[in-house]
Amino acid sequence: MSKFKKNNVAKSQEISTASLPDIVFMLLFFFMTVTVMKEEALKVENILPSATEIKKMEHKDRIVYIYVGKPTQNYVHIVGEEPKIQLNDKLANVSDVGPFVLAEIAKKPSHLRGFVTVALKVDKKANMGLISDIKQELRKVNALKINYITYEGEEIVN
Amino acid sequence: MALRDEMPQVSAGSMADIAFLLLIFFLVTTSIETDSGMNRLLPPIDTISTMDVKKKNILAITVNDKGELLIDDDIVALSDLKLLAIEFLDNGGAISSDDFYCSYCKGKRDAKSSDSPLKAIISLITSRDAVYEGYISIQNELLLAYGELRSREANRLYNVDYSSLEAMYNAPDVTSAEKEKAKKKIKAIQNMFPLNLSEANRN
Questions:
Q1: Is B3 inside a domain boundary?
Q2: Which residues of chain B lie closer than 8 angstroms to A134, CB-CB?
Q3: pLDDT means per 10 residues in chain A (158 residues)?
Q4: Is residue B15 part of a domain?
Q5: How many domains does chain B have?
Q6: Which residues of B touch A156 (CB under 8 A)?
Q7: Residue B10 counted as domain residue
Q8: How many whole angstroms separate alpha carbon B124 and alpha carbon B83?
Q9: pLDDT tens digits, one per residue of B4-21
Q10: Which element (helix H / strand E) includes A97?
Q11: Domain containing residue B61
Q12: Is any Cβ of chain A less than 8 angstroms from the Cβ of B131?
């Protein structure tokens, strides 16, 4: 017993902080690898609904995103409160969806063009009329593969 | 005291601060990927098929502008939708001499409900003012219903879950022969319970 006590009493050991940078760097690299840079600023509110029967979207290079939702505070006085469509970084109308999707598909390398999925990131409070219009536009340009992006989780029973 | 004679050391104390700064920068500018969702295939626009479908083969789901769910004009709770959909799809009302007799159906075989899963169509009519969230939860319930039926058949025929078949197909380290096998099984199951979902909206 006394053998152990002696050491401790003699001087309290300082914890070395030399490995702290390494730990932080490890965290840093972790976050750098698991996250993606935000591509564009959102101009619409975008709280996605939740669902359980969902699949991960592989192949990020084959996705065209369409955002739908109420304009955020900064844009309400310009475009009003009705849900709007955001294509890349612009607020757009339903009629712009078709040309936009075609342009995005044309930007992809030719071997991917047949596999492009249109990902709809729609705010959960958006109304279905707008979604139907978008789907109709997508059908017009023959972009038939779509994906409703959702969060994973139990849906709220309404 | 001895240190003074040696080379002066660079202090590494601020290294942690620098790394923290970088870490916080990346935390703020990035977002963790949330890209998962429900895949859907839209019908092509040029094939407006006007086929005759018997009324009993259609499960008409309507969502009104208040977000209420109606099946054949009765208000239904969202939590009941899955069971109703399964009951409808799995009914197998066709008689055994019929071409569409469903040998694997375990439903009530009610002559007034769908003949076979191959013929059964779920029709989803949403009001333009209905909220997207409700639509997604209905889609989710319907997918759950299909998933349950498909899993049942996958378990019966191949002794695996339907979802694990799909996982097998999507796994990155699987050989192409195994992938082909999984694909065949998935196709077989999908042909037993095809996703016949018709969508429209009403003003």
A1: no
A2: none
A3: 54 77 83 70 84 81 88 84 85 89 90 88 88 89 89 66
A4: no
A5: 1
A6: 133, 137
A7: no
A8: 16
A9: 567 777 777 787 788 888
A10: helix A97-107
A11: 57-202
A12: yes
